C-alpha cells in the first residue's frame, strides 16, 4: 500500500495551496480518507475527512470554512484545498485512510492504518 502526497511548498500568508494524495495497493473507493497535519513541535492534528463516495465530508474547527476536501475515485486521489493560508497552517500534511464512528454526540472521524509520508507546507 502506498499513499503519496504532493503539492506542498512555500505559500505566502493569504495564499492558497492544493494538496493531492494518490493511493495504490488498495481498492481506493473502499476507504474513507483523511488529512492530518503536524505543526512544528506539536501533536498530530486531524483536519479533514471524506467518505468513500465523497458524499460526506468533515472538517476540524481549525480549518472549517478555509479548507475543502475532495476525491476522485477514478484516479485514486484525494485532495485538500486550503485558502487564506495562515502561518498556523505550517506543518507536515499527511493523507491516511480513515474511519468514522457514529456516536450519540455525532460522527467521530479519525485516521486509520495506512499513511503517506507527508508533504511539508510552510506559510511565511
Structure, described:
A hairpin with a 6-residue loop joins strand 5 and strand 6. The chain is built from no helices and eleven strands. The relative contact order is 0.31. Helix content is 0%, strand content 59%. By secondary structure, it is an all-beta fold. It has strands at residues 2-6, 9-11, 17-24, 32-38, 44-50, 57-59, 67-72, 77-82, 91-103, 106-115, 119-123. The strands form two sheets. Strands 2, 4, 5, 6, 9, 10 and 11 form a seven-stranded mixed beta sheet that branches. It has a four-stranded antiparallel beta sheet with strand order 1-3-8-7, with no helix packed on it.
How far do the termini sit from each other?
Answer: 34 Å
Provide the residue-averaged pLDDT.
Answer: 96
Measured as a percent range, the helix fraction is: under 10%
Class based on secondary structure composition and strand pairing: mainly beta
Q: How much of the residues is beta strand, in percent?
A: over 45%
Tell me about the biggest sheet? 7 strands, mixed
Model regions low in confidence, pLDDT < 50 over at least 5 residues: none
Shape: globular
Q: SSE order in H/E notation? A: EEEEEEEEEEE
How large, in whole angstroms, is the Cα Rg? 14 Å
Q: Tell how many strands the DSSP assignment holds.
A: 11
Please work out how many helical segments DSSP would assign.
0
